[in-house]
Hints:
Helix content: 25-40%
Structural class: alpha/beta
Strand order of the largest sheet: 3-2-4-1-10-9-11-14
Distance between the termini: 10 Å
Largest sheet: 8 strands, antiparallel
Organism: Deinococcus depolymerans
Function: Catalyzes the first step in hexosamine metabolism, converting fructose-6P into glucosamine-6P using glutamine as a nitrogen source.
Subcellular location: Cytoplasm
Strand content: 15-25%
Active site: 2 (nucleophile), 601 (for fru-6p isomerization activity)
Radius of gyration: 25 Å
Domain SIS: 279-420, 455-596
Number of strands: 26
Number of helices: 18
Amino acid sequence: MCGIVGYIGPRQAQDVLISGLAKLEYRGYDSAGIAIHDGAQIDVKKKAGKLENLSSLLGGHPLSGTLGIGHTRWATHGLPNDTNAHPHATEDGRIVIIHNGIIENYLTLKEGLQGRGHQFKSETDSEVLAHLIEEAYAGNLEEAVRAALAQVRGAYGIVVTHVDHREIVAARTVSPLVMGVGEGEMFLASDVPALLAYTRNMVFLHDGDMVVLNDDGFRVMDLAGNPQQRTIEHIEWDAEAAEKGGYDTYMLKEIYEQPQALTNTLIGRLHDDTGEVNLDINLDPGSFKRISIIACGTAFYAGLVGEYLIEQLARIPVEVDVASEYRYRDPLVSENTLAIVVSQSGETIDTLEALREAKKFGAKTLGVINAKGSSMTRELDDTLYIHAGPEIGVASTKAYTSMVSAFLMLALWLGRARGTLSEEQGAELLKAARELPRLVEEALAPERVARIKEVAEKYAMARDYLFLGRGVNSPTAYEGALKLKEISYIHAEAYAAGEMKHGPIALIDENLPVAVIATESRLLEKTISNVQEVRARAGKVILFLSDGDTENARHGDDVIYVPRAHEMVSPVVNAVAMQLLAYFTATALGKDVDKPRNLAKSVTVE
């Protein structure tokens, strides 16, 4: 997690840092800080809490200087207070560092440093890096950073400056860093949106890269000092794409961006004339005997939809794993396994390590990824980009529906290539996929949104929620519960509807709202039977039905209609209703939906 920004050039660095940190606060908002080099000294200002607290501290007394580094923190080691906030400086203030990640052997290193006379101010693992660099420094900052990093074990994106040098030295292992290349100026950040206001020319650093930025440009080398060539990539996003665009929150903006995001995911990949899907994937679809889908959180639920679609359409056995457990359970992997990792950021550490585990045993690897240039994309055999655009809200919306759409295309591609899906069936599903942007736009019609808002506010004071779904929409129920938990802090559970009678039914009483996805499907009749079991125990049923289903409306205390869609694409359309239910519940409770407590957008620590 955590957000990093660095700048060297002719501008006042504070303006660049604060602007960049505002774009990265979704990565952590336990504290924020900046360090500005004015040519004679390095001034450090930092404050616990959100970025606005740091801005208030700076007040009318900005720090002057054209070189600086900044950080917004998601706490791992040490309480979220002023002292533990970054940047961290050595006792004499000559070396200043910021760090994203975890130094796993920091206690051993810290004890050794203390034994050699070093005094520590914070409880963080990060401060160890400043002292290691200080101990190794002999006039060359680059060499000192290299020597310090040789002693550490763990994950890091580290940025360092020294009072005697007009340069920034940075390095990364696991934790992401991207450079922005301007005219006579250089930028550094954890993620692209922080830099889009200044440049769209980016250099994505690889695992094990070190870079030196100065007024002349940049040099990239590995941790042994060997020069490395990195391509400057032009990013198509503009700065406005990463702003709220007139919406109250990033999350709401991104919910409404889904028709366009889905168009971007699908465009150019669907061929009506043949019923074929072109994913520009070089893997051999006939070589896999089994598929493992590996992901975390929202991406995991997208993977569960993918499991259903691939098994139904391509008839390949699929299992879905929580990435944080995958490499610790000694998975059965062979060269006939296709491991599919799913991640919006492409930086999720649990998923990245699971990818490496699968590769170690010979699996072919494919990524369903949003962020270009991310760590995963450089280690995968092939990548299916979802092209959802920048997603700032911590609770994923457009990335989720784009991931599900990508799995639909992948299932179609596999099914047609393996001969398990006829041309006629492929054409039918391709037509359904092409309808998705329009259907989601319909799902966001004002009268539908107003109805969901009404229902959300009615049940906003509930202490618990239950979500139920069946078949391809059981993962939609899981995703609905997750969204509600993430941003409203209401306890919510989700089950495949048929499982309710095997335990969860004991929870049902007149105080429990039960959201049931009962849209058109071959299991609709069974789902309605489960609804009747809820009503028999006085549960309050919020029923999500396909347009025109007036017969089943009588089984719900509150009914929300969604556009009628083919069963195989319905999880995309239904997810929008789940997002809006969570959103309006959270806003009714006065929650900050873009920055839910304890969460960060990109999870880069285990």
